[in-house]
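Field reference: "sequence" (input) and "structure" (output). Example, CUB domain-containing protein:
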Amino acid sequence: MIQFRTPEIKNSKTFNWRITTITPTVQYLVGEKGTLKSPNYPATYPDSSDFRWNIVTAPHTKIQLLFALLETQEEFDFLYVYDGPTINSQLLLEKSGSEPLPFAVNSSTNQVLVRLTSDEAKAFPGFLAVYSTL
C-alpha cells in the first residue's frame, strides 16, 4: 500500500510530497472456528498499517464472520472482507467508523481475507470477531 500525504507548500509554485510505503502484515488462520481481533485489541491498533488475516477452512465449507466490535477512524481507517484469499477476490464488506453490533458476513468459499488499513492519524480499538464454518 502506498499513502500520499497532503503536499507541503513552500511557495505558490512548488509542492513537496511525502510518500510512505506500507508492507502488509499477514496472519494465516486454519481451522473450523477461531477468534480474530485487530492488533493490540482492546487498545488501539498501530498507525500507518495494513494488517491481513487469511482464514482457510475445510474444502466445500463456507465461513461466517460474526463481528462483536467495529470501531475505526471514519473515512480514514477501513475494514475489508474478501470472498477469497486475495484483495482481488470479491469484496464482501467495506466499513469505516462504528457499526451497530453484532453483524455477520458470510462467504461463498472456504477462504476469506480480512484486511484492516490505517492512516498516520488517530487510531481506535479496531475490531473483534469470531469465525466458524457453515
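The first strand starts at residue 2 and ends at 4.
The domain at 23-133 is CATH 2.60.120.290 (Jelly Rolls).
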